[in-house]
Write a structure and sequence with these properties.
By secondary structure, this protein is α/β, with parallel strands linked by helices. The chain has 2 domains: 96 residues, 3-Layer(aba) Sandwich (Rossmann fold), CATH 3.40.50; 82 residues, no CATH class. 42% of the residues lie in helices and 17% in strands. It has 10 helices and 7 strands. The protein has a 4-stranded parallel β-sheet, sandwiched between helices. A 3-stranded parallel β-sheet has the order 5-6-7. α2 packs parallel to α3. 33% of the residues are buried.
Length: 203
């Protein structure tokens, strides 16, 4: 740890770009961000042990810490870890909630339960993490097994990124789902971060 880094941030690698954008906009140079693998999006059982390992090895070196994850499919295991160490995490069950804003995400979920969500990161990495990661490139018959109960895909766009938009359109086509685009920007994410001790003011 450098002397100017007083707060440890343990973050999901899938939100690193958005997190660093907020940090840069706010001059939060005291934050030392340590990212865990974005691929754990598919294996949430690894998240709580990974966070615990970093807290065990690094927390004593900092004045404070927070965890830049939602529950993310850990089934409460992440909360058990952070409660034991007295640190906080981002609110909500999934990153979709804090990227869209809690009220907007709840409205989307209530409108259509069978929704598959994409963020910028997941859109750009859909083939690697989802389509190939779940073996559908090798076994196309798995597509209805994994996605037969979905009725739409919702892309929550944090940035105006044509590549991510094209990737989202291709992802929806590969699953034969209609695509809806919701341009969230970073404001809901910034508001979610306001609940942790990092002094966020601007996007």
């Amino acid at each position: 740890m450098r002397a100017d880094k007083t707060t440890l941030v343990i973050a999901c690698g899938a939100i690193a770009h958005e997190l660093m954008a907020v940090i840069k906009a706010n001059g939060l140079d005291h934050l030392d961000v340590q990212c865990l693998p974005a691929e754990w999006h598919n294996t949430p059982d690894k998240i709580a042990p990974g966070v615990k390992e970093l807290l065990d090895s690094r927390l004593a070196d900092y004045e404070s810490a927070f965890v830049a994850y939602a529950d993310c499919g850990t089934g409460g295991h992440l909360d058990a870890v952070i409660d034991a160490y007295g640190v906080k995490r981002l609110p909500g069950a999934h990153c979709y909630s804090f990227f869209a804003g809690e009220a907007e995400f709840e409205a989307l979920a209530e409108d259509e339960l069978g929704t598959f969500y994409l963020t910028d990161y997941l859109a750009l990495n859909f083939d690697r993490l989802i389509y190939c990661g779940l073996g559908m490139d090798r076994y196309p018959e798995l597509v209805p097994t994994y996605f037969g109960h979905y009725t739409r895909m919702v892309y929550l766009a944090q940035f105006d990124n044509p590549d991510a938009l094209n990737a989202a359109q291709e992802a929806a086509a590969s699953l034969k789902l209609p695509l809806e685009i919701h341009r969230t920007g970073l404001k809901p994410f910034k508001q979610a971060l306001a609940g942790v001790p990092i002094h966020v003011q601007h996007v």
